[in-house]
Amino acid sequence: MAELWQWIQDHGVVVATYVYLGLDVLLRLVGLVVVPRNRRPGSALAWLMAIMVLPLVGFPLYLLLGKAELPRKRREKQKVINRLMHVRAQDLPDSELDEDSPSWLQSAVSLNRELGAFPLTGNNSADLEIDYDTSIARMTADIRAATREVHVLFFAMALDEVTQDFFDALAEAADRGVTVRVLYDHWGSLSHGSVYRAMRRHLDAHGIEHYPMMPIKPFRDGAFQRPDLRNHRKLLILDGQIGWMGSQNLIAAHYDKKSNIRRGLHWQETMARFRGPIVSEMNLLFATDWYYESAEMLTEDDLVQAPTDTSGSYECQLVPSGPGFVFENNLALFNQLFYSASRRIIAVSPYFVPEESMLAALVTAARRGVEVELFVSEIGDQFLVFHAQRSYYAALLEAGVRIWLYRAPTILHAKHVTIDDAVTVIGSSNMDIRSFLLDMESSMMIGGTDFMEKMHHVEDVYRSRSRELTLEEWEQRPVPMRLLDNLCRLASAVV
């Protein structure tokens, strides 16, 4: 043994070289077998390229980030929730659609019900708020009016000069005996540092129960958890009677970042406030996330409240999505609606990196005569995503899609779609691969002529703040910029 060890020491360079080459070949061969399994061709190709170029770097990254799957214990919880929701759905008929609703809308309702188990509810009312500070002020006022229960769930939450009154209202509610439950994404909030810690201290000081969602504790649930699986939902439910959802996080419009303040960046959002039976469905969705983090199963009798306001005329259906579902619920819904459109599609998405089927649906719609408009930001706050989405502009413009660039220094962070004059989808979901595969999202499909008018008014406001990108302008961009966009597009496929 001593002689062998001495020989290894004497020939260390040769041994290390052969070990390296053997490991290099082994990782490449294993990658060829493992990576393509149950994966989109584009994603598989991107991972294989990473592994083939630098096996000792690419393969560990694949083990870390290559599976968009929750760990075993969370999957078991998701199965319990899905089973309970489907059992409940069997006893709840869908609301009747308006007589003037297009025939294809019923198939969208059936699809959503099959994927997410939430029924279509009628007699709802809703209004929109696009002013950042006003929406926080209105949510704060609703908290102060709550008498029984307040449920809060946001991807990013922080206590700063803009949200101080919101958290004061939560404290007042808890102090007067209202049950307050708070959820926030761990990384989405933790990354904001001191204002995140201030929020936690404030909640603790008033005895408010709160949990970070998808905590970055890799082996907490019995298996390694991919760290970039996040809960991206934004929900506020009060007494089971009022529900807020949309794109806005609970943080100052500049996200408390010095670089954003220096550049003058601020976020533009769209939030919707609901009354009617749909609020109980929103409450049930909150309860699923509460169960994941607290292990407390809130009862349906407590969550589903008879609405005090049923004067509305909107049909609403909640659509949850995320890595806990077998199918990509939000992508399936968007594609179904895009292929059903006959006159007009208007899509607002800050991060637009479409899956191949979505790109085909939009291009096909434009080529068959549907007016297609896409709203994105003129500048981006995420380098990789911003340049990846730019790589799709040429194909869209060539097909006849009109692209509106929301003027700098504002980041258009709103997320909504309107189809013809028939239906709206609004919520937290971007139109990118991350929202389809890695993030837990919530979307609301809404039918109703009056609501469509409200939505079109918002679109008109955004159009007035944007400039249209033309194909001629786009073709004149520098070659190095084209190469960068295409390189980022390739990198974005590594999911």
TrEMBL record:
EC class name: transferase
The UniProt record lists the EC number as 2.7.8.-
Instruction: Give the transmembrane region(s).
Output: 12-33, 45-65
Q: Which GO terms describe its molecular function?
A: cardiolipin synthase activity
Matching InterPro entries:
Cardiolipin_synthase (IPR022924), CLS_N (IPR027379), PLD-like_dom (IPR025202), PLipase_D/transphosphatidylase (IPR001736)
Superkingdom as given in the UniProt entry: Bacteria
Quote the subcellular location field of this record. Answer: Cell membrane
- Location of the PLD phosphodiesterase domain: 227-254, 408-435
Q: Known PROSITE patterns for this protein?
A: PLD (PS50035)
Specify the protein's topology with respect to the membrane. Multi-pass membrane protein
State the name under which the record lists this protein.
Answer: Cardiolipin synthase
Which organism encodes this protein? Brachybacterium alimentarium
